[in-house]
Design brief:
By secondary structure, the protein is of the alpha/beta class. The chain has a single domain, classed as Rossmann fold, CATH 3.40.50. The chain is 39% helix and 13% strand. It has helices spanning 17-27, 50-59, 74-88, 111-136, 155-158, 162-183, 218-228, 242-248, and strands at 8-12, 32-37, 63-68, 93-96, 143-146, 188-193, 239-241. The protein has a seven-stranded parallel β-sheet with strand order 3-2-1-4-5-6-7, with helices on both faces. α7 links the parallel β6 and β7 (239-241). The longest helix is centred in the middle third of the chain and has 26 residues, at 111-136.
Length: 271
């Protein structure tokens, strides 16, 4: 498959950042994009809403459905999946992109923040995948893509921000379990993570990071496209890195993705 034309993608957290870029890339193929996020009204601190993202995706050539969704709310998620499937005639691809981040040591992590990260990251990934299953099972080439890192038990990633690392690794461990379980239904489950820090609104949560040392979210969108256009039977249970995916597709000139070409790039967390 060399296009996502006519495919329906349900993308959590797609009002901005990497999720939106994945949607825009698919929209250029003529895909249907469900923008499932909480950003229903403009926020002066964070640009973009589900409605502005939908407008961009339709301008890019796709069809869009903006749904205000809190992925912590089971009833909300189940209803959103049903509405999306009814609107577009099914769901082919789920992108578990939504994520909460709070980089602080144990003593400085309020339990409210700890709970939010686990509810959105780990629990949200499991909940959305579970709710999408009835529709994915009916799809021709179903994929679940989780934006999470390769699993690690290295203490250096846990000690500085144990709450965030637990929540993010929880997404990855979910991939480990879901991939073999869902393979029986022909559903591919993979994870994708960036080699470098990506310049998004979440960048403000990482102290001392200069955007000039980052790549743009388009690199993740192009890597996701490469994965999602593969037959589901060919690739599942893998923890993929964006530049490696692109290299396998013959794309090795990555200057186009640099915020400022020629500047040294910061490696992302967990790599």
């Amino acid at each position: 498959m060399t296009s996502l034309a006519g495919k329906t993608l349900f993308i959590t957290g797609a009002s901005r950042g990497i999720g939106k870029e994945i949607g825009l890339r698919a929209a250029r193929d003529g895909a249907n994009i469900v923008i499932a996020a909480k950003s229903n009204v403009p926020n002066p601190r964070l640009p973009g809403t589900i409605h502005s993202a939908a407008e961009e995706m339709e301008a890019a050539g796709g069809r869009a459905l903006a749904l205000k969704v809190d992925i912590r709310d089971e009833d909300n998620v189940v209803a959103a999946m049903a509405q999306a499937a009814e609107h577009f005639g099914g769901i082919d691809i789920l992108i578990n992109n939504a994520s909460a981040i709070y980089l602080a040591p144990l003593a400085e992590t309020p339990m409210k923040r700890f709970d939010l990260m686990h509810q959105v990251n780990t629990r949200g990934t499991v909940l959305c995948t579970q709710a999408a299953l009835p529709y994915l099972k009916k799809a021709d080439n179903p994929h679940v893509l989780v934006l999470s890192p390769p699993p690690s038990l290295d203490p250096k990633w846990f000690a500085p921000h144990v709450g965030y690392t637990l929540a993010k690794m929880g997404m990855s461990f979910a991939v480990l379990g879901m991939a073999p379980e869902l393979k029986a239904h022909g559903i591919a489950v993979n994870a994708l993570w960036p080699r470098t820090v990506i310049h998004t609104a979440a960048l403000a949560m990482i102290p001392g990071v200069n955007p000039d040392n980052c790549r743009k979210p388009e690199i993740m969108a192009d890597a996701a496209w490469q994965v999602l256009t593969l037959p589901a039977s060919e690739l599942s249970g893998q923890f993929l890195i964006d530049d490696e995916v692109l290299a396998q597709a013959g794309i090795t000139d990555l200057d186009q993705y640099a915020v400022k070409p020629g500047q040294p790039l910061l490696p992302d967390l967990f790599l």
